[in-house]
Amino acid sequence: MDRPVDRLTEWTRRHPFAVDAAMAGLICFVTVLVPAESYWPYEGSAFVVGLLLTVPLAWRRTAPVPAAAVVVGAGLLELAVVGEFLPANVAALVMVFSLAAYAPRWASRAGLAAGLVGAVLAALRYYSPGASDGLIPAAGAIGVSVVAAWALGDLRRARLQRLAALEERAQLLELERDQEMRLAATAERARIARELHDVVAHSLSVVIAQADGGRYAGKTDPEAATGALEAIAATGRQALTDMRSLLGVLREGGGEEYAPQPDVAAIPALVEDVRASGLDVDLIVEGDPRPMPAGPQLAAYRIVQESLTNVLKHAGPAGRAWVRLQWRPESLELSVLDDGRGASAIADPDGKGQGVRGMHERATLHGGRLEAGPRPGGGFGVHAALPYGRTR
Fold first, then answer.
1. pTM of the predicted model, to two decimals?
2. Which residue in 365, 364, 299 sits closest to 334, CA to CA?
3. What gap in Å lies between CA 306 and CA 195, rounded to an integer?
4. Which residues of the chain form CATH 3.30.565.10?
5. 378 DSSP 8-state letter
6. Is 119 exposed, middle or buried (0-12, 13-18, 19+ CB in 10 A)?
7. Strands (E), the chain
């Protein structure tokens, strides 16, 4: 309902010279043009001085110091050639206000000093000690007016500085919000990349192992080949479900519901799936399970999953692996070890190390640590510790 007022305010802020020029014209009309036709005894000189006092007000914000210099010069000229105190001297008060509000600090103080000196000089020039409007009252009245104008201008300066500080703070907050959104988006992309790598790498490794086993068993044991095909189908369906769950976060307004993310309790089932793929793997659990937030539990599951995937890819069907979960007082420690037999001669893991890097990122993200590397005597080992943190 205040739209016209808001538009007018915004226009005045964007066009300060036009506003000041209109104000200068109004002051000139009231204090120079109207009195020029009535009672000034020195029409010519008073008219010129009145113009010099009022016209510079059009630049009181865009160029306050040069405008003030012209007004000071006009005031001195008035003392020299005009015999009566001019109504246009109100422009001097406006200029003192403008210097205090818009000019540098030194110009503001200089404007106050010039105004006070001008008050004394004007009183000495146009008022006499014995008159009813004597020298001291006139000087005091003009001086008080100058100080009041300067004080109002200084308050205006403080308000403008406060508004500028608020605008700067709003801009900084907006930049900070944009940066936080970019960082959140980057972190989310990294999380999705880790999840996709874990799901795809593990599922494909299981599928490949089952397919190889089924191919060899198909010639002599059709039932074993059928079991391998069933395992491949189950693994593919689970991978598809996980992929849908991950890609669902990229849809806008979907509202779809998916199965919860796996946790530490799902690790035994994971070990059973890998064992069914042909890898000899044992699970050892030490200590009593403790409450853990969902994030560290998912990280523990993914670390075990990625480690067993690497064993499937690099240790070969003749390899053997051990998964150990140790519930310590402060953290869950897990280890995945293999004996390095079979296809362990492959020195460089594929994927350019994305799996190990992802495991490091998962552990670090939740305040834990992870070490991965060859074991003395052969094989590979992954050791991680994930603190319990605060449960909710």
1. 0.48
2. 299
3. 10
4. 263-392
5. S
6. buried
7. 280-286, 320-327, 331-338, 369-374, 380-387
Contact yes or no for 363/332 (Cβ under 8 A): no
Place of tokens 């869950």: 332
- 333 forms bridges with which residues in the sheet? 326, 385
CA–CA distances in Å: residue 61 to residues 91, 134, 146, 286, 378: 14, 35, 18, 78, 81
Per-residue model confidence (pLDDT) at position 198: 66
Residues 145-152, mean pLDDT to the nearest whole number:
91
Handedness of CA 59, 61, 66, 67 (dihedral sign): positive
Contact 315, 340 (CB under 8 A): yes
- 199 in helix, strand or coil? helix
CB 362 within 8 A of CB 194: yes
Lowest mean pLDDT among 2-11, 158-167, 181-190: 2-11
Q: Which of 283, 284, 308 is nearest to 359 (CA)?
A: 308
263-392: CATH homologous superfamily?
Answer: Histidine kinase-like ATPase, C-terminal domain (3.30.565.10)
How confident is the model at residue 256, as a pLDDT? Answer: 46
